[in-house]
Target: TerD family protein
Amino acid sequence: MTVNMTKGQKISLSKADGGSLTAVRMGLGWQAAPRRGLFGSRTREIDLDASAVLFADKNPVDVVFFRHLTSDDGSVRHTGDNLVGGAGQGGDDESILVDLQRVPVHIDQIVFTVNSFTGQTFSEVQNAFCRLVDETNGQELARYTLTGGGSYTAQIMAKVQRGAGGWTMTAIGTPANGRTFQDLIPAIVPAL
Model:
């Protein structure tokens, strides 16, 4: 059963049977919003990029994105860059796989971001979402839908955080500006 998350909502990543998740996929989907022009509606390709920034005690220690597809320890893996989007309400355009059992013990948070590498704003994007899937069985666990567009070029989407009771996911949904994950670090820090 999917939980449709709202900004700031936190959910446990424990399974219904009391076990813990071992591997999750953070999927990102989007579509270019149609624009009205002199010759009718048209769309422009939008290149959004998903990134996962790994933190240890509020310090970034590694990142997974389209130019560094696997974390140094191998626990987090990006499946590849999609330059145009298009899945929208359907499947994922970009995915990041996290093997929670292999994440080193010093990593306590993984923050997922999305940014427009080509600089288009989210007012040109529709049907954008991020979702968390149990990678062992394909079941969607949670979905956070981006609403409202806006004049920003990035968003801090969600984070998974290790605690005494296991991993939790929090929908962040904070707009930001930047073309790469490096540009977003100042916007990420308050969400840690």
Q: What stands out?
A: The longest strand covers residues 166-176.
